[in-house]
């Protein structure tokens, strides 16, 4: 079965085409600047030259049509006809309390995704655009939605409820949902396979550290807590997001600086984190480069970032009553040996000991970076959310 995986944003669309029986990626690519006459489409087919083109792509329906054209193109395609695509899987950020697992798309599912727009106003509308665009171009092809929040629906009430009036939960569903669930789920399974131990017997702290970042406490394969909350703003310090702060800062700052709700939201989501403290960049690679050049603000931003991550790891070790393995994934987690070292060197009380050679730059792929004497395994597991979406789609459609 060939499964097309779609990750739609408000003005972008990423895709991967899988040949499921072999787990192969036949093609992948993305469309950027949807809605403009200078939209950029990049296409990377297996065994053929990459394609990059600029053209007018004004909506997601047109973007999907262009992707399908390239997938069957005589020189750049990997299929004879679009009919060879037997199912389409979509990433949807927010499933609320309605979805504890991936589901096939029908009118009820689409209606519920629309109802959840308020909880993910930047993401869920884009996902629905992608679903509708596939329906317009591929009528009758089954579609599946995979939710970032679903993996965390196993959290107990003590973890997902906030200590605010319960009427806010009953009326407006104010609670912790968590995100990056597809990634946390994937690396948990891969960690168990790497360690050759049953997932049901493991206590894991998984760290998805990229421009957006979150930790999860995973007990026996089930998420029991996670750092992102009702929105992806809570938790760790991130590239441009503040993470945890005193909630009184919001009204105080609004009063002092005469900010609107929209302006303070923009400040916390787009102008905080590494970007704000360093005054330089939200990109950890640039932060580390500036540190090497003696930039004290970059050094402070890095120290704050590592310190807050270390605190969450310690908290989740407590929530799990112990930790068998600590897992790093995503862009920064997979590639910054300096961050991993800074975090782990202060976790010796938990029994964490890092092998600095294995933690070095020359190693890639799934790997153990803890010393032989470490009581806690420390792993780097590259994430693969697209494969999880393809796998769930295949299972539900087959």
The rounded distance between the terminal residues' Cα atoms is: 9 Å
Percentage of residues in strands: 15-25%
Query: What is the CATH C level class of the largest domain, in words?
Result: Alpha Beta
How much helix, percentage-wise, in residues? 25-40%
Structural class: alpha/beta
The coarse overall form would be: globular
Enter the CATH topology name of the largest domain: Nucleotidyltransferase, domain 5
Q: Low-confidence parts, pLDDT < 50 over ≥5 residues?
A: none
CATH architectural label of the largest domain: 2-Layer Sandwich
Individual helix count: 14
> Strands of the biggest beta sheet: in what spatial order?
5-4-3-2-1-6-8-7
User: Could you state the order of secondary-structure elements as H and E?
Assistant: EEEEEHEEHHEHHHEEEHHHHHEHHEEH
CATH superfamily of the largest domain: ATPase, nucleotide binding domain
> Mean pLDDT, rounded to whole units?
95
Q: Write down the domain tally.
A: 2
- The value of Rg in angstroms is 22 Å
Total number of strands: 14
Largest sheet: 8 strands, mixed
Describe, in plain words, how this protein is organized in 3D.
The chain is of the alpha/beta class. The protein has 14 helices and 14 strands. The protein folds into 2 domains: 2-147, Nucleotidyltransferase, domain 5 (2-Layer Sandwich), CATH 3.30.420.40; 197-385, ATPase, nucleotide binding domain (Nucleotidyltransferase, domain 5). It has helices at residues 60-71, 107-115, 124-137, 157-160, 166-172, 181-195, 249-257, 261-270, 273-278, 284-292, 296-320, 330-335, 337-344, 385-397; strands at residues 2-8, 12-19, 24-32, 36-45, 51-57, 85-92, 103-104, 143-147, 203-209, 213-219, 222-226, 325-329, 367-368, 377-380. The strands form 2 sheets. It has an 8-stranded mixed beta sheet with strand order 5-4-3-2-1-6-8-7, sandwiched between helices. Strands 11-10-9-12-14-13 form a 6-stranded mixed beta sheet, with helices on both faces.
């Amino acid at each position: 079965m060939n499964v097309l995986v779609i990750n739609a944003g408000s003005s972008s669309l990423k895709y991967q085409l899988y040949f499921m029986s072999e787990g192969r990626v036949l093609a992948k690519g993305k469309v950027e600047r949807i809605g403009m006459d200078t939209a950029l489409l990049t296409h990377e087919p297996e065994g053929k030259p990459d394609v990059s083109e600029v053209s007018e792509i004004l909506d997601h329906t047109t973007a999907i049509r262009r992707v399908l054209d390239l997938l069957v193109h005589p020189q750049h395609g990997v299929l004879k006809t679009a009919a060879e695509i037997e199912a389409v899987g979509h990433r949807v950020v927010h499933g609320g309390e309605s979805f504890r697992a991936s589901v096939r798309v029908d009118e009820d599912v689409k209606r519920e995704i629309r109802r959840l727009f308020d909880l993910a106003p930047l993401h869920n509308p884009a996902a629905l655009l992608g679903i509708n665009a596939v329906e317009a171009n591929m009528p009758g092809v089954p579609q599946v939605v995979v939710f970032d929040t679903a993996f965390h629906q196993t959290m107990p009430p003590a973890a997902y409820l906030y200590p605010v009036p319960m009427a806010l939960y009953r009326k407006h569903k104010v609670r912790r949902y968590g995100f990056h669930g597809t990634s946390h789920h994937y690396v948990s399974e891969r960690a168990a396979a790497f360690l050759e131990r049953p997932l049901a017997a493991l206590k894991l702290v998984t760290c998805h550290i990229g421009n957006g970042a979150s930790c999860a406490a995973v007990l026996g394969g089930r998420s029991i807590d996670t750092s992102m909350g009702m929105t992806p703003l809570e938790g760790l310090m991130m590239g441009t997001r503040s993470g945890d702060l005193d909630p009184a800062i919001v009204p105080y700052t609004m009063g002092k600086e005469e900010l609107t709700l929209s302006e303070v939201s923009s400040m916390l989501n787009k102008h905080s984190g590494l970007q704000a403290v360093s005054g330089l960049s939200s990109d950890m690679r640039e932060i580390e480069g500036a540190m090497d050049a003696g930039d004290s603000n970059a050094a402070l931003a890095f120290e704050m970032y590592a310190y807050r991550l270390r605190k969450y790891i310690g908290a989740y070790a407590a929530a799990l009553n112990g930790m068998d393995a600590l897992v790093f994934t995503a862009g920064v987690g997979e590639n910054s040996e300096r961050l991993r070292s800074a975090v782990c060197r202060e976790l010796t009380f938990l029994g964490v000991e890092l092998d600095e050679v294995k933690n070095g730059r020359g190693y890639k792929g799934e790997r153990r970076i803890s010393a032989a004497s470490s009581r806690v395994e420390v792993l780097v597991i590259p994430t693969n959310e697209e494969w999880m979406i393809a796998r769930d789609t295949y299972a539900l459609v087959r």
